Predict the structure.
Amino acid sequence: MNKSSLDDVDRRIISELMKNARITYRELAKLLNLTDVAIIKRIRKLEQTKVVKKYTTIVDPNALGYSKISYTGINVKPEKLFDVVKTLKEKTYIKYLALTSGDHDVLAVIWASSASELEKIHEEIKNLDGVLSVYPMILSEVVKDEAYI
């Protein structure tokens, strides 16, 4: 199933699940004016085709004591890229890690409890074998936080 094979009902189901993944089949059926069985079948198909990959909890890092969030670009020597990525994957302070084709080789989202902790983390990354440079972008304010299909 790809984006073009999703109909308006599938898109509404996904939209509602993104708002509240704990919504019941019955509530969803009532919202979309369908039967419970129709909703169950559609959701199973969305799951089987990996349109819906998982259900998760989104937490507020600040509520957990992480007051500093950094989107950090990392440039790496090409021959060390996968070694660096393997090391970074193991770090608990990194919450998201991706290879990119943009200005930086790697993008990491880092949660820290203070500015000094974040500085230490960036210094630790900078000192990894193969890392050429680290470009932190420290989050100051989120002005929009929702995803669309």
About this structure: The beta strands are 68-76, 94-99, 106-112, 131-138. The domain at 62-138 is CATH 3.30.70.920 (Alpha-Beta Plaits). Residues 88 and 94 are 7 Å apart (CA to CA).
